[in-house]
Amino acid sequence: MAITGVLRIGEAALRVLDLEESIVHYRDRIGLQEMARDDEGRVYFKCWDEWDHHSLVIREADETGLDYMAYKVSSDAALTNFEKRIRDYGVEVENIDAGVYLKSGRRIQFTIPSGHVMQLYAEKVKVGNNMPAHNPEVIPDEGIIRGMGPTRLDHILIYGPNVPECGKFFTECMDFELAEEIVKDGTDDQLSVFLACSNKPHDIAWVEHPEPGKLHHISFFLNNEIDVYHAGDIIGKNRISNDIGPTRHGITRGATIYFFDPSGNRNEVFSGGYIRYPDNPPLRWDESQLGPAIFYHDGKLNESFLTVVT
Amino acid sequence: MAITGVLRIGEAALRVLDLEESIVHYRDRIGLQEMARDDEGRVYFKCWDEWDHHSLVIREADETGLDYMAYKVSSDAALTNFEKRIRDYGVEVENIDAGVYLKSGRRIQFTIPSGHVMQLYAEKVKVGNNMPAHNPEVIPDEGIIRGMGPTRLDHILIYGPNVPECGKFFTECMDFELAEEIVKDGTDDQLSVFLACSNKPHDIAWVEHPEPGKLHHISFFLNNEIDVYHAGDIIGKNRISNDIGPTRHGITRGATIYFFDPSGNRNEVFSGGYIRYPDNPPLRWDESQLGPAIFYHDGKLNESFLTVVT
Amino acid sequence: MAITGVLRIGEAALRVLDLEESIVHYRDRIGLQEMARDDEGRVYFKCWDEWDHHSLVIREADETGLDYMAYKVSSDAALTNFEKRIRDYGVEVENIDAGVYLKSGRRIQFTIPSGHVMQLYAEKVKVGNNMPAHNPEVIPDEGIIRGMGPTRLDHILIYGPNVPECGKFFTECMDFELAEEIVKDGTDDQLSVFLACSNKPHDIAWVEHPEPGKLHHISFFLNNEIDVYHAGDIIGKNRISNDIGPTRHGITRGATIYFFDPSGNRNEVFSGGYIRYPDNPPLRWDESQLGPAIFYHDGKLNESFLTVVT
Amino acid sequence: MAITGVLRIGEAALRVLDLEESIVHYRDRIGLQEMARDDEGRVYFKCWDEWDHHSLVIREADETGLDYMAYKVSSDAALTNFEKRIRDYGVEVENIDAGVYLKSGRRIQFTIPSGHVMQLYAEKVKVGNNMPAHNPEVIPDEGIIRGMGPTRLDHILIYGPNVPECGKFFTECMDFELAEEIVKDGTDDQLSVFLACSNKPHDIAWVEHPEPGKLHHISFFLNNEIDVYHAGDIIGKNRISNDIGPTRHGITRGATIYFFDPSGNRNEVFSGGYIRYPDNPPLRWDESQLGPAIFYHDGKLNESFLTVVT
User: Which chain A residue is nearest to residue D224, measuring alpha carbons?
Assistant: First the structure.
């Protein structure tokens, strides 16, 4: 495939209520590497198998939620091209100089129809994945993989209005593709869309929700489905608030467990799911099949899963 | 170890409301081998890796539940010895001739303090585990392992009164050992006991309950923890009523999923758990820790799990 | 990412010495679905999770090896574009009309510098992945997943001359990217290149070899690393000639097992490996590190693995 | 089962050539807990899930091999009984006072027909399995499970003469049972016997060998078969000498990997295998089936595996 354009979610910036508790959670329970702290109190983390400097940023605030999500694009030229396409689409775009964000090249920022702040950038300082690029190993040194041991930040699921318009905006301006959708039975009305810009079953997803700009969860990838069980053990051991799981999604087929950080932001670690290609037909789920679509093993909806967002 | 005495649960006999639906469930979903049907309408099943003729018997009846559970002992001499010890303990014992039960040698039958009918027997016709004993293989032919693919019937959890007395009876008369227990906080009052007669963390367990003779679940063993996930997929695919899971038990440390047969009898498939030795200290859980004791991943009790019995 | 261009290997066409034995191997041992047989004696197979009509074609011949490999591209326009770029690069391109190949749209065919016949096509009849696209399931019906149960044809590794030129041709004309390479120590001389056109660590790979057009192996993907173990059990059970494994590759980090079809063509089933992004640095292995690069668990080279090709 | 008599291998005492290298190997690579060092230079280790003070003892010496193996019995009365039975069998027994061995009660010591020194003991100081016995957890604190993360010392395989006599001695005097055997084709002549005193497929095994008292390997148990893969990654990463694996045994059905400690003593980590009951028929393998019996996945014998002992 011509791999150009948006590569992946490269950064999620969360607000937390208690910074120290949150550091313990993300560093010791999920098992991220703490990479830096800045003068404004932000703490930066990466997963062990990521090459770039950081993928998660947290800061203490009075309320939880998502400051912004930033997707990495393949080149500065691609960034320029996306800027033009987004402006041409009628969306206001803000330019942010290189260096304003830690270890980062220039960014563009805009608000998407669901009310979330999104950024695109092409450059971030590379620090490596804990193994050399010349004669690498398959695992890093003992102690680098800790906690749940995720390899990377994988995707984000957000709640807000105008979900169909979000899908349209991302496919038309940023070349995302519709992987799966939930519709009102017998209609094309999308209540939820799952979009991919890769061979993964999703890189971003929305659920229709009246309040704009809300976060449902950020998700980290685990290498094997059995690792979801290990994550559950860590959740139990540390009395982390478990939302649901282990279970499997009908949508994406991933093995998953959901839990909350100490401030109430939802996290997911997951594994598996199919390898998606652009010639796969988009998969459609009826609203009446929401049970198995979301939690395949029991087909039952969990009230908190559908309603608690930050 | 001197391996003598009670070996394992060798047979569970369940009542079901609809025989044909139940056959589909146990044969095609759980994946047992249908071994025989008798003139009274009983259907006999075994797991693929069991050597004896059958381990599960179902029959159609107006109400669900357990007819009896039968444990296999190491020899006819052991059977005679247990008969004497049980009678000496003051429990009435009934003798059942060889051949009364299909493919089975003589049995003794008695009612335990929780109101359940229990049998012991030393002989059952061996049909083999689908692989030869001379130059065996490690897997049987394609198609033998089906559905959830359990290797054997593993244990039973029953509800009834007099749980501490059940524990005493089984340890004193049948050499079971206390593996784990749940007690009222700060007391020795047992609400639940998990007994083992093997290196497994349990071979039988009770929960205190006013009504005698009730079944909580029969449980089948899976070779790997990840197989619990596959069982969940089969449960979802076939819209089997899922009670809870996949999750992990604090008690026994097993990876587990619970679901109901079409009549409402609860089944479990599980894997893992520790290797138990008689010099392990019994593990004690306080009633206030019932959440993590039962479902470690979320530490939350599930009302149906605690109250629905057949 | 702009997902355009070459999507994946869509078809490998192998010559086998005994068709019936080969059908048993690919259908019953590996577990592919037999989709069709044609008048010239070709047999067509697909993996259970593939949407297109077939991905493996075998025919009986006097000698083993690869007839051609066909990669699917994202659209007819992309096909036209590749045709032009390849011609402009100086490579002769043959046009093949729609319908010449079973269930297939038009193709272009050319010989790559390593002497292998390659095809590109944009259309093949879709038959589905054994689950509906509207309210799908996560697993197909019992019995569909058989044998080793691969989800898809994943990649091919071929032997021939001019490996660096092959890498150049694929990156310049077909937008593949260099994922990993093996070089002579202290030089840039490539002995082997692993190229990707997706988020997988490789979609095609070469090893330098004097004889052109040779096949090292075709590879199928398994969902979980533990499935490689199950594949090993099937190999052992059926006395399939095992080349090496289970083991892990240093290159790609995949869990793998290699074996031969009844005619001696090498097959691989594998799982795992990292998620590759185009901004990952290419990984370089020195020839002196070939041991861990290929078989990480013992770091020892296997003579047959390096020399037996068909 | 009446769980009395020999419980398990409780201690293996190895000679190593370089103590410091060996400590790194057993502590950091295999992941044992270093428990003590004594005045004679012995270093004591345990696995994280074992309750007793230690299970492995190493000391520096001029040549590698096994000093002794010590099996734990269920009670002091059982110890006295075994002492009498062994003496009555005609084997000389030495008494060792409590306290002579670190943290240990009294022992009896004798030489078995294969020339190995064996001890039995009933008491060793309990230190716990890193989790409380009152309201335990399912996993210990982060960092306790390290390296390959075995839960316990599982069994030993030894080489020496008089294998059939060893089997007779262990079954007649110590109530072991024959789980599997390798015989010369068409005869009852045992070349190798696998004996169990538990529900595991073996607790000790022999291979006929002219030189007495040799060690083939000590083996540690892993919770899941996939953990064998992780062990392989650690072996590769640390360039530990890998003998063979990952693979599966035909005998016991275990998933396994073999490697050498820095001095050349062979270690195994394994998982899986069937749950053995005393009413299972012993499994017999012909010498001509030694390939699949030992390494099921390729059915090929490895010269070093059969000949290198310490």
Answer: A226
Contact of B226 with chain C, judged by CB distance below 8 Å, is answered with yes
Q: In chain D, what residues touch C235 (CB-CB under 8 Å)?
A: 297-298
CA distance A128 to B170: 60
Helix (H) or strand (E) holding D76: helix D76-89
Give the domain-ending residue among D100, D121, D142: D121
D278: closest CA among B2, A92, C230? Answer: B2
Counted across chains A and D, CB pairs separated by less than 8 A come out at: 26
CB–CB contact D237 A147 (8 Å) = no
Block residue for tokens 């290997």: C9
What is the pTM for the complete model shown? Answer: 0.96
The residue of chain B with its CA nearest to that of A250 is: B236
| Interface predicted TM-score (ipTM) | 0.95
Q: What is the pLDDT of residues C184-229, one digit of tens each?
A: 999 999 999 999 999 999 999 999 999 999 999 999 999 999 999 9
C165-171: Cβ within 8 A, 24+ apart: C165/C113, C166/C112, C166/C113, C166/C114, C166/C193, C166/C206, C167/C193, C167/C195, C167/C206, C169/C89, C169/C91, C169/C112, C169/C113, C170/C112, C170/C195, C170/C204, C171/C195
With contact defined as 3+ CB pairs under 8 Å, the chains touching C are: A, B, D
The domain containing residue A111 runs over which residues? Answer: 6-121
Say which amino acid occupies D62: D
Q: Please confirm whether the linkage preceding B246 is cis (ω < 30° from 0).
A: yes
Residue C181 shares a structural domain with residue C103: no
Question: Token pair 């009152």 is at which residue?
Answer: D134
**Do C158 and C205 sit in the same domain of this protein?**
yes
Of D158, D95, A173, D288, nearest to D167 (Cα)? D158
pLDDT at B11: 98
User: Same domain for C117 and C162?
Assistant: no
- The CATH number given to whatever domain includes residue D288 is 3.10.180.10
What is the spatial distance between Cα C237 and Cα C301, in angstroms, rounded to a whole number? 25
AA identity, residue A173: C
Sequence-ordered list of residues with C-beta below 8 angstroms from that of C99, at least 6 positions apart, any chain: none
For residue B204, the cross-strand partners are B156, B195
- Residues B141 and B139: their CA atoms lie apart, in Å, by 7
Active-site residue, from C54, C116, C155, C216? C155
| End residue of a domain, out of B99, B121, B143 | B121
Neighbours of C185 (CB within 10 A): 10
Instruction: Report yes or no: D245 and D233 within 8 Å, Cβ to Cβ.
Output: no
Q: Which of A4, A200, A296 sits opposite C2 (nearest CB)?
A: A4
Q: Band the pLDDT of C302: cuts 50, 70, 90.
A: confident
Whether residue A72 and residue C279 make contact (CB cut-off 8 A), yes or no, is: yes
DSSP codes, B62-86: SS-EEEEEEEEES-HHHHHHHHHHH
For residue C139, the distance in angstroms to the closest alpha carbon of chain B comes to 7
Q: Which of A252, A298, A151 shows the shortest CA–CA distance to B242?
A: A298
Which parts of C235-282 are beta strand (E)? 242-248, 254-260, 266-272
Residues D138, B253: C-beta atoms closer than 8 Å? yes
Which residues of C are less than 8 Å from B234 in CB distance?
Answer: 139
D114 and D165 in a single domain? The answer is no
Does any domain span residue A127? no
Q: Distance (Å, rounded) from C-alpha C172 to C-alpha C175? A: 6
Q: Which chains touch A (3 or more CB pairs under 8 A)?
A: B, C, D
**Segment 102-121 of chain B within 8 Å of chain D by CB:** none
- Residue A162 and residue A232 in one domain: yes
Q: Quick: pLDDT tens for A158-201.
A: 999 999 999 999 999 999 999 999 999 999 999 999 999 999 99
Please pick, among B54, B202, B209, B216, the residue that the annotation labels catalytic.
B202
Closest-approach residue (CA) in chain A for B226: A226
Q: Would an 8 Å CB–CB cutoff place D297 in contact with chain C?
A: yes
